[in-house]
């Protein structure tokens, strides 16, 4: 199946993991949660159900560089056998339009709905459903905002429920803490990291300035709250622990023989630096909920799987 809906380059993709359980099986319990800040309320109903996986409830969200958002249901929407076009360079170096046979007889799926913010043109860089509030969708953009939308509203993209900004650089990526209802982290094009509480949009809780170039991905750990990873164009992938913001920790001093030649001071939240890639590190992923095993991929065409020794967490 091929999903076709955006008119320009896609930049973000995510599943709504809260929608994977059959609502008709098992006991259901509704919990209402409010995100409040200066009179802005977002009410969400979180269904906690147990049962078999029902793919008809799976929602997929995507965003693109033209500022559009698409919502998809892989078992709904309009399907056709239109074969997508794939563009490339032929043997003589000229542009060519290839009709790849592997796509033949593969149905293409149109989105359930598409939104484009006509009030302001900006590139959308990343998109995620909230892990606790199943109707909350977060999107970050080149204007430095992370905006929260309630997808239950018909024209939700016309105005965000609440927006977060305290830095005048493009926000490339963000991640919700899997163990917290309100904490998320964001990464910017100049290498800055910000930690936010969703109940306060005036200023971030913490800023970490260590990466020397653009941050491409930031992801919270699946194993423990407060631990997250980042990867950057400076060739490094880092693991951080927010709990090390305590005043009881001594200031970590810069070593003269720092192998990564980073001119910035080492933040006390830094747990580990992986420097195995040559050039930009584009993406990272945590393995599961029982280990600190991670994988990163970079411009050097390598996929590296590595594990931070847990002893670093207790130093």
Explain briefly what this protein structure is.
By secondary structure, the chain is an all-beta fold. The chain has a single domain (2-17, 55-76, 103-242, 270-312), classed as Methylamine Dehydrogenase, Chain H (7 Propeller), CATH 2.130.10.10.
Summary keywords:
Methylamine Dehydrogenase, Chain H
Notes on the protein architecture:
With 315 residues, the chain is mainly β. The protein has one domain: Methylamine Dehydrogenase, Chain H (7 Propeller), CATH 2.130.10. 0% of the residues lie in helices and 42% in strands. It is built from no helices and 26 strands. The strands form eight sheets. It has a four-stranded antiparallel sheet with strand order 2-5-6-11, with no helix packed on it. The N and C termini lie far apart (49 Å). The relative contact order is 0.11. Mean pLDDT is 76; it is low at 20-56 and 246-257.
Span between N and C termini? 49 Å
Radius of gyration: 21 Å
> What is the total tally of β strands?
26
* H and E order: EEEEEEEEEEEEEEEEEEEEEEEEEE
Q: Strands of the biggest beta sheet: in what spatial order?
A: 2-5-6-11
> Whole-number average pLDDT?
76
Biggest sheet record: 4 strands, antiparallel
Helix content: under 10%
The assigned CATH architecture is 7 Propeller
Number of domains: 1
Q: At the third CATH level, what is the topology name?
A: Methylamine Dehydrogenase, Chain H
Q: What structural category characterises the helix and strand content?
A: mainly beta
CATH superfamily grouping: YVTN repeat-like/Quinoprotein amine dehydrogenase
Task: Pick out the low-confidence regions.
Answer: 20-56, 246-257
Globular, elongated, flat, extended or rod-shaped: what is the shape? globular
């Amino acid at each position: 199946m091929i999903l076709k809906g955006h008119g320009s380059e896609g930049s973000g993709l995510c599943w709504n993991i809260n929608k994977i359980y059959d609502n008709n099986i098992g006991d259901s319990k509704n919990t209402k949660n409010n995100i409040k800040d200066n009179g802005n309320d977002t009410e969400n109903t979180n269904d906690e159900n147990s049962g078999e996986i029902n793919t008809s409830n799976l929602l997929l969200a995507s965003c693109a560089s033209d500022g559009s958002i698409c919502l998809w249901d892989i078992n709904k929407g309009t399907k056709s056998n239109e074969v997508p076009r794939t563009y490339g360079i032929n043997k003589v170096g000229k542009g060519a339009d290839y009709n790849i046979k592997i796509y033949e007889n593969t149905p293409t799926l149109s989105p359930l709905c598409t939104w484009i913010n006509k009030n302001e043109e900006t590139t959308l860089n990343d998109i995620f459903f909230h892990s606790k509030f199943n109707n909350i969708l977060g999107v970050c953009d080149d204007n430095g905002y992370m905006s929260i939308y309630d997808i239950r509203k018909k024209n939700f993209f016309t105005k965000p429920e609440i927006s977060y900004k305290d830095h005048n650089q493009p926000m490339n990526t963000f991640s919700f803490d899997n163990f917290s209802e309100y904490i998320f982290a964001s990464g910017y094009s100049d290498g800055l990291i910000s930690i936010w509480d969703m109940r306060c949009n005036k200023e971030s809780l913490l800023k970490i300035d260590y990466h020397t170039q653009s941050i491409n991905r930031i992801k919270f750990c699946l194993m423990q709250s407060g631990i997250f990873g980042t990867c950057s164009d400076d060739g490094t992938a880092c693991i951080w622990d927010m709990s090390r913001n305590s005043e009881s920790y001594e200031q970590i001093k810069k070593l003269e023989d720092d192998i990564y030649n980073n001119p910035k001071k080492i933040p006390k939240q830094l747990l580990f630096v992986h420097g195995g890639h040559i050039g930009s590190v584009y993406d990272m992923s945590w393995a599961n909920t029982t280990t600190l095993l991670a994988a990163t991929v970079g411009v050097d065409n390598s996929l590296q799987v590595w594990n931070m020794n847990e002893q670093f967490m207790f130093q």
